[in-house]
Amino acid sequence: MVVHYMANSDSIRVDFICPQNAGRSQMAAAFAERERADRELERVVEVHSSGTRPAESVHDEVVEAMAEVDIDVSDRSPTYVVPEALETSHFVITMGCTVAEFNPEHYGVESREWNLTNPDGEDMETVREVRDEIETRVGALFDEIEEIATGRTESQSLPQRVSDTISDIFK
């Protein structure tokens, strides 16, 4: 049984972090955004991506590999991790960097390490393998997130669920 530590928030925040924020974390965020939309969780899940030493731009081979699956990451810009922002995260997923310096347990944040090859400078076959593995892992993560989101809805009182439903209808 997996125990989920949840930071206090109305939404579920997921942070993908890698050193340069130009490959793995960008792919993960893009797949997470697609999963969020496909599962109609836009109002429930926040997706963030950052790096400990951001590159100037997303790696060309990553842009190309993601374009092959109809996801455009060419306009994204690598950004720095803001440790204080992680306090409100529910899942911190690292790929090639340590999260220990942020002490996620102190904030009640679940952290996971996805040890994946850095696609920077790799041949396209390797980049595709990394991309496909990230897509699989993000899908599994969203299976968990969907259960959490469903549990939140079910744990609301009947009047709150009715009120939320009426509000949704008139938006």
From TrEMBL:
A GO BP annotation: response to arsenic-containing substance
Entry keyword NAD: no
Start and end residues of each Phosphotyrosine protein phosphatase I domain: 12-144
Keyword line: Arsenical resistance
A Pfam family hit: LMWPc
InterPro entries, alphabetized: Ptyr_pPase, Ptyr_pPase_sf
Protein name according to UniProt: Low molecular weight phosphatase family protein
Chain positions covered by the region annotation Disordered: 152-171
Tagged with keyword Metal-binding: no
